[in-house]
Amino acid sequence: MSDGEGPIRIGWIVDRLDLIGELLRDHVILTVLAVVIGLIISFGLALAIRGSPRLYGPIIGVSGTLYAIPSIALFSLLIPITGVSIVTAEIALVSYTLLILIRNIVEGLNGVPPEAIEAANGMGYTRTQRLLRVELPLALPVIVAGLRIATVTTVGLVTVTALIGLGGLGYLIVNLGILRGSSPFAATAIYTGVALAVALAVFADLSLLALQRALTPWARRRSA
Amino acid sequence: MEFLGEVVAWFANPETWSGRNGIPIRLWEHVSLAAAALAVGTLIALPLGLLIGHTGRGAVAVVSIANIGRAIPSLGWFGIVFVPALNLGLGLGFWPSVIALVPLAIPPIVTNTYTGLREVDRDLVEAARGMGMHEWQILRQLEIPVALPVILAGIRTSAVQVVATATLAAVIAGGTLGQLILVGINIGDEVQVFGAAVLVALLAIVTELSFAAIQRAATSPGLRDRGSAAELSV
C-alpha cells in the first residue's frame, strides 16, 4: 500500500486497528444504551398519554424543548452535575431520542384500526393482552420508523461526545484529526471516523428495517 | 447553589461582555454564521424542492437527500471541510464553517417543500391549468401559498439545526458561542462552560419560537386549522 502520497494513509489505519476497533465498540455501546433507555422511557410516557391524552401537549412540549438544545450545550450543562462521564453523555443522548420515539409510538398506537380493537375486545382480551398481541404488532412499522430515525441521529450525536473527552468515533475526527491539523495523518483520521460513523448509521438503519420486516410478515405480504 | 451563584457572577462580570472572547462578539459570530448558512442552504434547497414538488419527478432524490443528510454526523461535516480548507490554504473560520453547515440546512427544506407541494389538491392544480394558468402562475399563486406553512416549517427545522450546530464551528476556528464552551472545557472553567451553554440553549429556543411565530403569521387564515397537521409531518 502506498503510504507516502495521497490524503489517505492506509498504513496509519492498519497500525491502529485495535484503537479504531475500541472506538467503534464505545460508539456502539453509547448508541445502544441511549436508544434502549430512550425507548423504555418513551414507551412509558406514551402509555401514560394513552391513559390521559391531556398529557400529550406538555410531554411533547418538554421533549421538544430538550430536542432544541444543542448537543454540546446539553453536555456542558450537565458537566457540573454529573461530571465528564458516560452518565452525562447518556442523559443528553437519551433526551434527544424522546421527541421522535414518543411521537411515533403514540401515532402508531392511534393508527390501529378500531375494528382490530373491537375484535380483540370481542375475543375477551384483557387490556394488556390487547396491547401486546394486537395493538403493538399493528403499530410496529410506525414505531420502528421512529426508532430508525432516533438511532441514526444518535450515532451522529455520539461523535460530539469526543468534545467533552468521551470516546466514540468522534475521537478520530476531533482529537486525532482536527486538533492535529498539521499532522500528515489528520485527513486519514477524519475520513476514517466519518466513514465508520456513516457505515454504522446505515448498518443500524438497515438492521432495524430487516427486524421490522421479520416481525411483521403480514405487512410484507400486503405490500407485495 | 454555590455553583449557580458563580454562574450569575460570571454573567455580571463586565469582562464576560468585552473583548475578543466577550459574549457580544461570539454571539454575533454565531448568529451571522447561522444566518449565512441558512441563507445559502435555502437558496439551494428551496428551488430544488419547488422543482421536484411541482413536477412530481425526483421523489427518490428527496428521500436520498434526507437519508444521507441524517447519516453523516454534523461534526463530520466540519472534519470533511477542514481537510481541503487546510490543504488548499484557504484558511479556516467563517466560510469553511458556512460550507460545513449548509448540508445540514438543505434536507429539511427540500423534504418539506416537496411534501408541501405534493399535498396540494391535484384537482385544484388541474382546475388552474384548465383556467389557462401557466405552470409558473400555478406555482406562485396556488401551490406556494397553500404549501407555505409546511415550507416554513422546514426552514424552521433547518434554522434550529444550523443555530445548534454552529456551536461546533469553534473546532475549525469559526468562533461562535461554542468557542466559549471549548475554551472553558480546555481550561477546566465549568462556570464559563455552563454560562455559555445556557446562552446557546436560549439562542436555539429563541430561534425556534421566532420561526414558529413567522410560520403562524404567514399562514393564510383559511389554512390555519391545518397548521398543526402540517407540523406533524415534519
SSE inventory with pairings:
The complex is a heterodimer of chains A (224) and B (234).
Chain A (H helix, E strand, L loop, with lengths): L9 H6 L1 H35 L4 H13 L2 H12 L3 H25 L3 H9 L4 H34 L9 H4 L12 H30 L1 H7 L1
Helix pairs in contact in A: 2-5, 2-7, 3-5, 4-5, 5-7, 6-7, 7-9
Chain B lengths: L1 H11 L10 H33 L3 H13 L2 H14 L6 H25 L3 H9 L4 H31 L11 H11 L2 H29 L8 H6 L2
Helix pairs in contact in B: 1-9, 2-5, 2-7, 2-8, 3-5, 4-5, 5-7, 6-7, 7-9, 8-9
Structure write-up:
The complex is a heterodimer of chains A (224) and B (234). Chain A is mainly alpha-helical. Chain A is built from ten helices and no strands. In chain A, helix 3 packs across helix 5 and helix 4 crosses helix 5. The longest helix of chain A has 35 residues, at 17-51. The radius of gyration of chain A is 21 Å and the shape is elongated. Chain A starts with 9 loop residues before the first helix and ends with a helix. Chain B is mainly alpha-helical and 234 residues long. Helix content of chain B is 78%, strand content 0%. Chain B is built from ten helices and no strands. Chain B has helices at 2-12, 23-55, 59-71, 74-87, 94-118, 122-130, 135-165, 177-187, 190-218, 227-232. In chain B, helix 3 packs across helix 5 (94-118). Chain B is elongated, with a radius of gyration of 21 Å. Mean pLDDT of chain B is 89; it is low at 227-234. Classes of the chains: A mainly alpha (224), B mainly alpha (234).
